[in-house]
Specification:
It is a single chain. The protein has a single domain (22-108), classed as Thrombin, subunit H. With 109 residues, the protein is mainly beta. A hairpin with a 4-residue loop joins strand 2 and strand 3 (42-46). The strands form 2 sheets. Strands 1-2-3-4 form a 4-stranded antiparallel beta sheet, with no helix packed on it. Strands 5-6-7-8 form a 4-stranded antiparallel beta sheet, with no helix packed on it. The termini are far apart. The protein has strands at 22-27, 33-37, 42-46, 54-58, 73-78, 84-88, 93-97, 105-108. Keywords: Glycoprotein, Repeat, Signal. This is NHL repeat containing protein.
């Protein structure tokens, strides 16, 4: 559900509430916003109505190929069970992150 007001998210920062080179956005059934934070190797979430985001997947500023890391995440999708799917470009994989998980599971690639 959209309204006529907006919030500006500062970019080009590794601060936990900001993003650098956002590539994709997804919105879940609860109106939470997810951003593929390409340069910071993570996915940020803004819960509905909140002004501050948080890192929910990936390790800030540390690209890699571990199950808790990304190497240039480019796309995000949230299914009806709140699983987060992330296209991890330079690791050539798609990872699924269950709700409240600290690691992802490679489902393709």
């Amino acid at each position: 559900m959209w309204n006529d007001t907006a919030q500006v998210i500062n970019i080009d920062s590794s601060d936990s509430t900001q993003v650098s080179a956002p590539y994709d956005v997804a919105i879940d059934r609860n109106q939470n916003v997810y951003v593929a934070d390409y340069n910071n190797q993570r996915v940020q979430q803004w819960q509905s109505g909140q002004k501050n985001g948080s890192t929910i997947a990936g390790v800030t500023d540390q690209g890699g190929n571990g199950f808790n890391q990304f190497n240039r995440p480019t796309s995000v999708f949230v299914d009806t069970n709140d699983n987060l799917y992330v296209a991890d470009r330079d690791n050539y994989r798609i990872q699924r992150w269950a709700p409240d998980s600290i690691i992802g599971v490679t489902v393709a690639g």
